[in-house]
Write the structure tokens for this entry.
Amino acid sequence: MQHFDFSPFFRSTVGFDRIADLLDEAQRAADGDGYPPYNIESVGENQYRITMAVAGMTDEDLSVVQHENTLVVGGRARQPADSAQFLHRGIAGRAFERRFSLADFVKVTGASLANGLLTVDLVREVPEAKKPRTIAIANGSGKAKTIEAKAA
């Protein structure tokens, strides 16, 4: 694993000191075992969807928890009630915990399980107080100059 030094970028940025931690966390997640497989989709300008393949699990076996800017999806497969003797077991039925770092103002709006796929829907809702606004600048003549702020 390679470690990157982001300190030169901090000289020209303010408030982005969490980025190095997020990148390190993403690297650790990439080094994991990859179970269960998942997709992350953008389904709209501010809407996202995470789809995870959780074959053989029911909604009682799964948990979806959002705590601040972290989404934790966990699963605990039950052992078969009957004592089946498998000749080959290719469907992974093991416990897992997958963590996703969420951007500010992203929240989970719902989760569903169908055909062995767990779907978690997310949306970014920026509060009005955080949206760009116009600021009036007063000069020595008492007349205010206005600067327009445009959304990024």
In short: The chain has two domains: 1-32, 35-81+89-126. The radius of gyration is 22 Å.
